Each structure stands twice: as C-alpha cells, then as structure tokens.
Amino acid sequence: MYEPNTDFVIVNNGKNTILLIHCKECNSFVLFDDPNDIVYLYRLAEEAPLLYAKLALKKNGLQDYVDAMNWFN
After folding, report:
1. Averaged pLDDT of the chain
2. Could you list the residue range(s) of the whole structural domain that residue 56 is in?
C-alpha cells in the first residue's frame, strides 16, 4: 500500500517481513523529459503499489516505466 503521509510504499511479504520503499529516493534516480512526468510514478504508487515496488527493485525499472508512458502519450 502507498502511504502518502510518509511517501513510502509498504509491502508485507507474509513472512514477518515488511519492505519499505521510499518513493522520493527511488524517483530521484529517474530522468524526466518533463518535470511533470513524476506524476506517472506517484499515480503508479497509489494505484498499483506492488507494481511500483517491483519496478523500483529492478535496474532501470522506474525509468523504463516513465519512458514507456511518454512513448504512449
């Protein structure tokens, strides 16, 4: 789930382990064509937090997502 007050995606893997992903830190590694494109990542975190977490843990995952969104738009 995305927690907007702390800007974290929180994932509970069901084995007494909680994964915290700090969106601001992960998003800082993404290069945007337009600074407003950061909205793609915050919308992803809110609407599909597990996908956000998966992409944040992959090399260039968030960058590839933003690039794809720009290509479609």
Report:
1. 95
2. 2-72
